Amino acid sequence: MIRSKVKTLLGMEPGQEVLAKGWVRTKRGNKEIAFIALNDGSTIQNIQVVVDKTAIDGDLLAKITTGACIAVTGKLVESPGSGQAVEIHASSIELYGECDPVRYPLQKKDTSFEYLRTVAHLRPRTNTFGAVLRLRSQMAFAIHEFFHSKGFVYLNTPLITAADAEGAGNMFQVTTLPLDNVPKDKKGQPDYSKDFFGRRTSLTVSGQLEGELGATALGEIYTFGPTFRAENSNTPRHLAEFWMIEPEMAFYDIKDNMDLAEEFIKSLVKYALDNCFDDVKFLNDKYDDGLIERLRSVIATDFVRLTYTEGIKILQEAEAGGHKFEEHVEWGMDLQSEHERFLVERHFRKPVILTDYPKDIKAFYMKQNDDGKTVRAMDVLFPNIGEIIGGSEREASLEKLNARIDELHMSHRTLEWYLDTRRFGTCPHSGFGLGFERLLLFITGMQNIRDVIPFPRTPKNAEF
Ligand code: 4AD
Ligand code: MG
User: Fold this and answer.
1) Which ranges in 342-412 belong to alpha helices (H)?
2) I need a labelling partner for 314 at 20 to 30 A (CA). Which of 41, 147, 219, 233 fits?
3) Reduced to 3 DSSP states, what percent helix, strand and coil does the chain have, rounded to the nearest 5?
4) Which protein residues have a CB closer than 5 Å to ligand 2 (ion)?
5) Which atom of ligand 1 has the smallest separation from the CA of 244?
6) 211, 225, 277, 200: which is closest to 443 by C-alpha?
């Protein structure tokens, strides 16, 4: 007999013989009958297996404990219970794998997220992480579908690179040099000519620079891959390894860029509600009964658009009115999450796109405004998250870009190939980066970014 997934079984007409396979969530019952809740990951729902104890061997049944893996053959019948439409009346059960009830970590009463992070290799078996990981997969598909439908080219950019795209210097070095005996050059510095790539290399912080090469050839591209940042930020919103989606578009100005970002996020939220409602509803009902409403309201509202300078003014007025921020508000500062969230959650109560940031707190590649002080940056700020997207119109002038690289004492040598975009047929263009896990925080309502990626990488944590 062909195995049916639980998701399929729950939608099937009763009366048929079926075969189900999965892991036992719970077993309960009395002397005559046992009820097994079986889950195979295909849906948040379990299928109930009803076992007549005269029909199944007692020793076998005793071994079927929480976490055990079984195959059940039986008849699908209408369920008298209220929880489900159908259930399986087992005629035979095969035990694939026992699960020691004493040692199984998910038996514990402690189901806090902190505890589950210590057993991250098994937490996908819980309802919550099943829901989150299915949503993650669905969102990845929705992202590809969104760009595919607009004719964007999916460009794979390298993970190992010699350039620091954001110029922030927080890169993980990649080397095969022996750390206990590093070859030195004449100046006593590590001799990278002897390293694997013959130069100093790191894991990328962003695919954008290569993305710009793609956009100035293919028109509109997007990347979607892992990025790495060695910043020592132990916050609920930072990972050392996170996934980013970076579209880059020729002939888009900052306004076009904002329009695309807004349409993009809205379409992803809508996709989650339209296609993953079971999982969203589970998370809504269990943890956060405002989740569905928040998702719906984001689709329905226009994002507020204002400049950084206008944003600072609002924050300063709040301070003057008695609101206390941990960090005092001043023009030129990098906004902290408390400031971003004040604008989004208290002042406007909707997503905000802030533009035209001071050039000193933004990356070298952003288009310089005529005021000499600001750049054509845009950050999309979200309720409960803060910054979810960062992007900009790009500086198209070789001269201005070179001047900025000098000002920041960056290396021209590692950027020569990038500067060719401005040498050979430069064009106005724009792009942005969406943090995939930040999006998932919003869509799942989870509070900690470590809980929306299967195996989180954070300072002092790379166990699983
Ligand atoms: O604002 P960021 O640093 O922008 C860039 O990397 C640009 N190259 C993007 C572009 O224009 N193509 O990062 C973009 C987004 C942030 O808005 C945030 O959502 C996410 O990436 N992000 C992180 N997510 C998790 N952990 C971290 N440490 C993150 N750093 C940035
Ligand atoms: Mg940013």
Assistant:
1) 398-407
2) 233
3) 35, 25, 40
4) 390
5) 21
6) 277
Q: Which amino acid, one-letter code, is at 172?
A: F
Q: Does some domain include residue 181?
A: no
Domain of 67?
6-97
Kindly give, in sequence order, each residue whose CB lies less than 8 Å from that of residue 274, ignoring residues fewer than 6 positions away. none
Q: Is the same domain home to 356 and 241?
A: yes
Q: Do residues 226 and 143 both lie within one domain?
A: yes
Q: What is the pTM of this model?
A: 0.96
Q: Residue 299: inside a domain, yes or no? A: yes
Task: State mean pLDDT over 412-425.
Answer: 95
Q: Residue 420: how many CA atoms within 13 Å on its side-chain side?
A: 9
Is 409 within the bounds of a domain? Answer: yes
**Tally of structural domains, the chain:** 2
Q: Are residues 48 and 134 in the same domain?
A: no
178 assigned to some structural domain: no
Domain co-membership, 214 together with 258: yes
Q: Which of 74, 21, 26, 80 is nearest to 52 (CA)?
A: 74
> Do 442 and 388 contact (CB within 8 A), yes or no?
yes
Q: Quote the ligand 2 centre to 325 CA distance (angstroms).
A: 20
Whole-number Å distance, alpha carbon 32 to ligand 1 midpoint, is: 58
Alpha carbons 196 and 200: distance in angstroms, whole number? 9
Q: Ligand 1 atom 18: the closest Cα is on which residue?
A: 435
Of 38, 62, 97, which residue is a domain's last?
Answer: 97
Q: Say whether both 422 and 323 belong to one domain.
A: yes
Which single residue is written with the structure tokens 């990328």? 204
- The HSE-up count of residue 459 (CA atoms within 13 Å, CB side) is 10
Same domain for 135 and 65? no
Residues flanking ligand 1, CB < 6 Å: 165-166, 206, 208, 229, 238-239, 242, 244, 246, 387-391, 431-433, 435, 437-438
pLDDT in tens, 226-245: 999 999 889 999 999 999 99
Q: pLDDT of 388-412, one tens digit each?
A: 999 999 999 999 999 999 999 998 8
What is the phi/psi pair of residue 210, to 5°? -70, -30
The token pair at 4 is 């049916």
